[in-house]
Amino acid sequence: MPKPVAIARLERRLAELGCPTQQRERRVREIADHYEDLKVAGLEEGLSEAAAEARANELLGEPVAIAEQLAAALRQSSWWGRHRIIGFCLLPPLGIFVASVLSLFAVLGCLRFCFSASEWRVLADQGSGFRLLVLAVELGSYASTAGISILFCWLAQRSNSGHRWAMLACGVCSLQSYFGYCRISPHAVSIGYSLSPDWICVLIPLCLAAVIWARQSRASTMLNAVSDQGPDFAEAVLGSAEGFFADNHSERWWRKLIAYPTYWVLAVITLALVLLGLLAWAEIARDKLPRQIPKENWHAERVSAAQSPNVSPLNRVANNSGGVSSQANNLTNTLPWQRIVMIGASATAGFTEAELFGGPQTAQYKLSRYIDAALIAPHEAVRSLASRFFFLQPEVEAQRQIDLALESKPSMVIGVDFLFWFCYGEGQTDRDRLARFEKGLKLLDGFSCPLILGDIPDASGAINRMLTPDEIPSTTAMAAANRRLKEWVAVRHNVVILPLSAFMRTVIANEALSVHGRTLPAGKTGILLQTDRLHPSAPGCAVLALTALDTALSKVINDDPKQIRWDPQEVFRRGYNGSQPAAEKP
Amino acid sequence: MNKTNPSFLNGVPELLLLKLLSRREMYGYEIVKAIQAETKETFSFGEGCIYPYLHYLEKEKLLSGERKEVAGRSRHYYRVTPRGRKRLDQLATQWNRVAAGIALVMEGQRA
What we know:
The complex is a heterodimer of chains A (586) and B (111). Chain A has 586 residues and is an alpha/beta fold. Chain A has 24 helices and ten strands. The chains are: A alpha/beta (586), B alpha+beta (111).
């Protein structure tokens, strides 16, 4: 039996107001019973069926008003219904933040419960344990975002606040997920706000909002289909109600926008989505930037570094390469570039924040690729023993790399960031750090081949990005470590210092930088460092590789500089594209 | 802290409903007829308006309801809960005091 028009209107209005299906059905059924009782009473009084229905409609009252009163009564009986702005706009971000922190602690707590400290170190050292940890933290973050979004949607439904408030809560959750993060990176656990979103977290609440919208639309369509029994009858029995709807339809859109808070909510969601889209576009554009810059700006100018007043201290070291030390004559073998081995940490191994555990992009940040690309002289593929997980156990990892390097009988060893974690990282006092640094130097005693070692840079710009404040040594400790390195190198004819600290300083200050007489102008060198302020970008890898080779020619290698491509742009292009130039001719 | 009392619940409908349902359990139509009979149709209202009050009182746990089948028809019956009885006592006391006060004023006007 079809529902009377008044009851269908009541049901539709309840659905529009977001009354949960179960509650709606119960209320509609109860009022339909009442309607039926009124109709039966009319028939018993001798009225015709049409007249009895008309009277039942009249006595029952305006269905839209009843629906609104029903919804309001339910809403008013709940705190969430009475305080919707606090409940669905302000609390969701807080909820996600708290849930993310709790999930992080839960994951770390579970792992601590499951593994002993030594077991965990072994797992982390192999990489797989750390991968598991990051995966668990990410899943925890997704679960907390989804859980909080679902919780607030459920609260909106339970308090009869309507689907628009549920969708608004989802929008707010999505915004929070866009800016907020809770993650573990190879160097730190961090919770905070940034402009590097995890898109899965952003999309989870939006998907939920889409599901709510789809369900609501479906329910409205179904109820509309039920209630459409012809306008004549509806007008006859519900003249005033029809007038209400007719007025609504003829209302101008901008008046609706001003008059109804629900449209404000929709406007806020639309604005949020537009903002997200713009930020996503900006993010994509920023990712593409390093690939375009070299073509546009890398017009290397072959000028004398000595004539340039803006050239940094690094340049003076690099430009000394013209005069090869006489000691080098004794050290270089006949094929100095033949078998190069690289040792060190993440800056050598290749690292990008986009791929914490490696991937197709990470390969483009491997320093060995750019050494390969720079060398014209015949040579074996440069072997990299560097590890991104060096920081977990510097001494163990360093020993492993040195053993492997010695086994391979290298013609030259390059350790750009080999000593970094012997000064950075754990260390209560400067004394502890210097004691560890000494151990690092001692490990290097085994090499008799040419050895290029990076000094200790000031990476304090990476605080709260890749490094925690506790991991940064004091400036005194850095200076002491570099002094000790100079002393150590001074008595070893096979070792030369690569001025990594000067490289970092120059690049951070965006000053002019020269490598083998080619100057990158001031204002163009900032791109050589990634946004994490710790690792070189792909163009930075090219320049750093050339700096290492130039440093080698300055003391420990006696060879024709023409055996190297000195054009940073060309080296970048070849290294980035992964060409294997070992047997290539210029 | 007291919850905000919605404007549509000014106390009188609540008192009427609790009082009528304290005598016996009733369903919506029956309640409306009881109000009309006992007040001799003093109040005129759309009968559907009774349900928002009933559902509000049910949410507040002053009433409880269940669907029952009586004489071949299934209906939702409401009854007063112990909490509802306490509330009824409070409202009745307040009402008697207010009514007595108003009566005194009205008598004074006549004099």
